[in-house]
Design a protein that fits this description.
This protein is of the alpha/beta class. The protein has eleven helices and six strands. One of its GO terms (molecular function) is DNA binding.
């Protein structure tokens, strides 16, 4: 276990900060070296989450932008608890796992992890994944898709009836004002429903920032029949 600060050769005050949680020292050492070479600043590497959190008790150590977290730690800790504990510090979680632990990956994503990168991935892919998560973006890759595909109920946004109606009409092409009129609700209420719909899709790792994205989600979830989703990119 190590809790120190190491700055990469290109490190600056604006460098991406990273912490590593893995119960294999060799893995931690390899990841530290890769992060250093990429110019990332590694603020901590530990064998478990409680030790990592204890490091942040030191006012000189700020929580990192990204925590690279192994799913199966030697202390027998719970995946959901680990992810939520890290998220509570303000850090984003990038899962680092072997590819066949689909159920655990799904649990981590449900708890709020931003993505998953297999331990078999090339170093360059791991570094790129860290950069993606540090920007605040979800990491949508094959491993994420596999975890979602294994449980379609998990992938769905679990929309309420009124949210379902708003999405159906809005994704069909109606302006939000007409959606509100057709449903007999205020325009501001329709907008609130739309915001909640988008938030729910973000929660399951399927962000839909544009109207075209919402159309795709509606088709994927069976709310609308298959349509040409390339008809434009109009935002709300």
């Amino acid at each position: 276990m190590r809790v120190t600060t190491v700055t990469g050769e290109a490190g600056t005050t604006a460098a991406t900060t990273v912490a590593i949680v893995d119960d294999h020292e060799a893995v931690r050492l390899g990841l530290r070296a890769a992060c250093r070479d990429a110019g990332y600043e590694v603020v901590a590497d530990t064998a478990d989450v409680p030790t990592l959190l204890a490091a942040f008790d030191d006012p000189a150590v700020d929580p990192p932008k990204v925590v690279l977290l192994d799913l199966s730690l030697g202390d027998g800790s719970n995946v959901t608890d680990n992810v939520r504990a890290v998220l509570a510090t303000g850090s984003q979680v990038l899962v680092h796992s072997i590819a066949d632990r689909v159920a655990a990956v799904r649990e981590a994503l449900a708890a709020g992890a931003a993505g998953v990168i297999p331990k078999s991935s090339p170093t360059a892919s791991v570094i790129a994944a860290i950069a993606t998560v540090a920007r605040g973006d979800a990491l949508n890759n094959v491993e994420w898709a596999s975890a979602i595909e294994a449980d379609r109920d998990f992938a769905k946004a679990q929309l309420g009836r009124r949210e379902h109606d708003v999405l159906h009409l809005y994704a069909s092409g109606l302006p939000l004002k007409l959606v509100a009129q057709q449903l007999g609700i205020a325009h501001s209420t329709a907008r609130e429903y739309l915001d909640r719909i988008r938030a729910k899709y973000v929660e399951v790792g399927r962000p839909a920032p544009t109207k075209v994205d919402l159309l795709r989600r509606a088709v994927e979830d069976g709310i609308l029949p298959g349509l040409d989703a390339e008809a434009g990119d109009a935002r709300r």
